[in-house]
């Protein structure tokens, strides 16, 4: 179904189920975003089923490169949001990326989770810091109880700024002590990942998913 995948988010962290769906073989994604996602949808659903997720029970964000963080209570599209947090067990959070980072936020004590779409624009607006603050305000999750992991994303020299490094710095500034980044560049690994920049916008999207065990 896909090339060998090396990024397994939050591996071994109890209480959460996390996935990062890489480039999927056999799907023509040399088209616009909407059409590519329509073509990928059934394959994404199959991939997620094999990893214990229900693709029909997934909250998603509109992803407008802003700084809005929404509290997800059900499987719906959250307009205007680029990040989601939830304390609902079994509800998956989903974010699509193709060079931007998906940032996983997981409470070691199992109270709540967050998933953030953060590229250059969102990072400039410190959306990860906003999500960390909302997890505290809504669910009482202290920043030092969080594990934060940054997905594969585009990086220098293929991109002008190292927004992944900025994300990590923002998470630490918010009080997170466990920040993970395996420094995987999407643009340098298009056998495994889609890259909007390298493929000039005609490509698919990886799907990041995160849920609390029900």
Instruction: Pick out the low-confidence regions.
Output: none
The helix fraction, in percent, is: 10-25%
* Count of domain modules: 1
CATH topology: CNF1/YfiH-like putative cysteine hydrolases
SS elements, strand count: 11
CATH class descriptor: Alpha Beta
Mean pLDDT: 95
CATH architecture: 4-Layer Sandwich
Helical element count? 4
* CATH 4th-level superfamily: CNF1/YfiH-like putative cysteine hydrolases
Element string (H = helix, E = strand): EHEEEEEEEHHEHEE
- Structural class, by secondary structure, is alpha/beta
Structure description:
This protein is of the alpha/beta class and 214 residues long. The chain has one domain (16-212): CNF1/YfiH-like putative cysteine hydrolases, CATH 3.60.140.10. The chain is 21% helix and 25% strand. It is built from 4 helices and 11 strands. It has helices at 33-49, 120-124, 127-139, 163-173; strands spanning 16-21, 58-61, 69-71, 77-78, 83-86, 92-97, 101-107, 113-118, 146-150, 178-181, 206-212. The strands form 2 sheets. It has a 6-stranded mixed sheet. A hairpin with a 5-residue loop joins strand 7 and strand 8.
Keywords for this entry:
25% strand, CNF1/YfiH-like putative cysteine hydrolases, 214 residues, alpha/beta, 5-stranded mixed beta sheet, 4 helices, 6-stranded mixed beta sheet, globular
Give me a quick take on this structure.
This protein is an alpha/beta fold and 214 residues long. It has helices at residues 33-49, 120-124, 127-139, 163-173, and strands at residues 16-21, 58-61, 69-71, 77-78, 83-86, 92-97, 101-107, 113-118, 146-150, 178-181, 206-212. It is globular, with a radius of gyration of 16 Å.
């Amino acid at each position: 179904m896909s090339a060998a995948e090396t990024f397994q988010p939050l591996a071994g962290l109890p209480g959460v189920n996390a996935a990062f769906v890489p480039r999927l073989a056999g799907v023509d994604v040399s088209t616009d975003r909407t059409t590519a996602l329509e073509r990928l949808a059934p394959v994404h659903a199959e991939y997620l089923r094999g990893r214990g997720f229900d693709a029909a029970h997934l909250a998603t964000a509109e992803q407008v490169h802003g700084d809005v963080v929404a509290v997800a209570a059900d499987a719906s599209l959250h307009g205007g949001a680029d990040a989601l947090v939830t304390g609902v067990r079994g509800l998956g959070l989903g974010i699509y990326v193709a060079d931007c980072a998906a940032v996983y936020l997981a409470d070691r004590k199992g109270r709540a989770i967050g998933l953030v779409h953060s590229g250059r624009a969102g990072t400039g607006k410190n959306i990860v810091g906003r999500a960390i603050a909302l997890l505290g305000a809504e669910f009482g999750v202290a920043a030092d109880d969080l594990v934060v992991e940054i997905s594969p994303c585009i990086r220098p020299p293929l991109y002008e700024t190292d927004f992944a490094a900025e994300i990590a710095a923002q998470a630490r500034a918010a009080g997170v002590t466990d920040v993970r980044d395996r420094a995987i560049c999407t643009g340098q690994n298009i056998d495994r990942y889609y890259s909007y920049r390298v493929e000039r916008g005609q490509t698919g999207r990886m799907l990041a998913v995160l849920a609390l065990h029900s």
